[in-house]
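User: Could you write out the 3D structure of this protein bound to pyridoxal-5'-phosphate? I've included everything you need below.
Assistant: Certainly. Input first, then the structure.
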Amino acid sequence: MTASPLALFGGPPAIQTTLPLFNTIGDDDIAAVTDVMKTGVLSAYIGAPGAGFMGGPRVRALEAEAARYFGVKHAIAVNSWTSGLIAAVGAIGIEPGDEIITTPWTMAATATAILHFAGIPVFADIDPDTFNIDPESVRRLITPRTRAIMAVDIFGQSADMSALNAIAKDHGLKIISDTAQAPGAKVGDAYAGTLADIGGYSLNYHKHIHCGEGGILVTNDDRLAERMCLIRNHAEAVVRTDDSQALGNMLGFNFRMGEIEAAIAVGQIGKLAARVASRQAAADRLSTALRALPGLKTPFTPQGLTNVYYVYGMVLEPDALGVSRRRIVEALQAEAVPGLVVGYQNLHLLPMFRNRIAYGTGGFPWTSPYAGQDVRYGPGLCPVAEKLHSETFLGLNLCMNEFRPEDIDQVAAAFAKVWANMDALRTDAD
Ligand SMILES: *Cc1c(COP(=O)(O)O)cnc(C)c1O
């Protein structure tokens, strides 16, 4: 093999250009922001019963457009998707100590949202091919305290909603869908996020579309929608009845989105389809090139789903290659491959869970009389997620850079170069 020397060993890097940062903000967004600025009213919310309770005109326009686009009865704008997740957990009406089964292979806010209402996150393992929560693992973790499943549509494609909905039906559970990374992904004809009791999307800067910071909740349930609107805006000060049956968890927050963010976000929804199509084209082009490389699995999308590729998720076979992931990553980084994601998350291994120190240091909520005593965290709990994290997962962040076709070709060439030099990596003492 007459491959040019790896950049790791002093050769020229395969990628010589700096990829442009992805940017969805245009003159239309600037004009929309200017319009808001001219009104002087940057938020029209009032945390009291009355006309201002549901927010200003841009917030309501965003909600109408999001409900139309995603095909749901209610869309509710919030100031971040973390806020959205917290409102969702409060809205489904859990009691302290109730268990919600979720995945460790996600951003931390998925699990901390459960703790904010003194619920107990229970971590199921993930599917080795899709990286989404494994329904069989969920089934094994159900106890009399289980109230809900918090599914995550990780890296751009839906969790197995038909299996999860079947489990939820069997056991009377609610499902919340964290679709932060998969806006615009499809499950058959439906949008990911709309097949749960509550779902929703992040609008932070790092996601497909954004308004700086923000989030959108979606639901077809009137009662859940009402409860989320209350939690968003100081519920305790707003509800005026003493119907305590229906008013649990109405400890409110200020999760209100401002008019500037809403004015940007409404335009972003119109850009989502093109954005998704460009990520899919980039991913397909990359898969065509990388599929031929031995010891590397390109992303797997189950039948009937579409993937919007927030992260292009691959699995290495270091044993078959005879080279560790660490060494391969060093070689790819030296070739200037941008956006490598080495491992992801194992939330069940975080000190907060292993040491049970979410509130103070006394173990609350796990030590409260309401909580079960058999919830476990720590190594060995989720072997699939642990192995992917420490040894085999390698991703490419497709949402930070533009990745035009010529950029994808450069990335593919860098991988091909490293693979052509695998012998050199194998024999080099590392
Ligand atoms: C980004 C993200 C969140 C949090 O969204 P914010 O809008 O940043 O609060 C939650 N879950 C997942 C899976 C995410 O990727």
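The two ends are 22 Å apart (CA to CA).
User: Perfect, thank you.
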